[in-house]
Amino acid sequence: MPPGHTPCTPVPTTHTTTTPTRRVFNKIHLAFELLNHARMKFALIPILASALAGQSLPSLGSPADLEKASQNLGSEERATDLNVNSRYFIESISFTDARPYKLSSFALAEMHRLVGAKLNSDALNRLAERICGELRAHDVTFKLARGGEPDSVKVLLEVDKGPGKFDFSVPTFVYNTRQGWSGVAEAAATFGPNVITVGGVSDGDTLTERMEGVRARYDRLSLGSDRVRFAFQLDAYRDQYNRATLDALDHDPSSSLGAGAYRSRLNFEPSATFVLAKPLTLTVGLSFEQLQPEFPAAQSESANAVINTLHYHQRWDSDATIEELDAGYSLRAATRTLGTDLAYSRHAVNVRYGYTHDNQSVEVKLVAGVIYGRAPLFERFILGNSSTLRGWNKYDLDPLGGNRLAYASVTYGYRIMRVFYDTGSVWDQGKPASAKHSAGIGVSGGLGIFQKGAFLLAVAFPLRQGHTDPVLIAGMNF
């Protein structure tokens, strides 16, 4: 995963109930039934008394009177429903299948608002409709289960994907005045636990080069168990280079660089993900990458690697506070055992902590990385794009990237306003590290531009002596 890249925020599943529980709505329904039976018994008493006394039966009234009486009874039942619901408060909201669905910040905020509030069927129905629309599901329903405290319930959301589903999304769409436009568009088809995704990529923001091409991916969301998933990904890119990168390759090649400029890349990547615990997952796999050099007569090179990613995500909700921790460690080790031409290992660690209280929020990000051996350009670390060390130009910092990375960022938000400060350094082993700083202000629909439904419009300033050139950053995910 490139430095500074923040994964889409998954839906919290820490409170999902896994043991059989008694349904609260059954209890409510039973109360209504007993109430109706009691009313019928009391209504029959004067009729039976009149028959035994030899009197004529009392008139039941006209059809209009019966309709009015039925409406009154319905009003009483609704009032009783409201009174019964008002006894309970929502302890937690989670999904029955415990999958990390990607929802907008608005849907997540609504879920947080309902937790701790009184049970309200209308509000839950509105939430289910919003989630159904965002996930493009066939239907989303909710069930109630007894909570851990008296008069508390757990809301369990059940997503029905239907027999088949087609979805189109734009996971990334960003503009940087220094590096231009970058975007990813994807179309996905879901059939049961199988998902096939095909997408187009034009990305000049993430790596040292601009990569344009297609990618296809197959996901099996459950392989014998919901705790095991399988995926296979195919990437085919055409690479283009900035003049600063080409000049650096000609005049000052890095001794740690494993390959020069290449015109295309082809990658085959099978992987399996294991849910070790609800907040912790482990992904293992293989990456077979072929690099075609700029000159057709030159021989292609391979970068075949073992990939491992350990990812932890946890979210804590209280009355007016949300805390979220997202951390990961990734390793890509290209080894001669896999027949690679380039041997190296790439280690990267990223941590993101978010704290939200009412309308205020704070986000802290830390990223560090190290490469041993001679890695190709696409593996090297960069800073100075739309998500890391914002305001700086990555080609001014290091047009070839580096094999060492240290980066930190703090963002404060009030409603949609954002103020951020970035600092970090990218360098090669044996050379001195030079820390750079930047700051900026903008508006955003979430703490990060990589959250579904979020948007970002910001102006960033590199902090340096002399002139300061502001950089405009605009992005959206939908």
Notes on the structure:
This protein has helices spanning 24-52, 63-85, 105-114, 121-135, 243-251, 394-397; strands at residues 89-95, 139-146, 152-160, 165-176, 180-191, 194-203, 210-220, 228-240, 262-277, 280-293, 301-317, 321-334, 344-357, 360-373, 404-414, 417-427, 436-444, 455-463, 471-476. With 478 residues, the protein is of the alpha+beta class.
Keywords:
19% helix; 478 residues; 16-stranded antiparallel barrel; disordered N terminus; 6 helices; three-stranded mixed sheet; alpha+beta; 45% strand; 19 strands
What is the count of β-strands? 19
Number of helices: 6
Please give the order of strands in the largest beta sheet. Answer: 4-5-6-7-8-9-10-11-12-13-14-15-16-17-18-19
Q: State the order of secondary-structure elements, H for helix, E for strand.
A: HHEHHEEEEEEEHEEEEEEHEEEEE
User: Percentage of helical residues?
Assistant: 10-25%
For the sheet with most strands, the description reads:
16 strands, antiparallel, barrel
Average pLDDT score: 81
Give the termini separation. 21 Å
Q: Which range does the strand content fall in?
A: over 45%
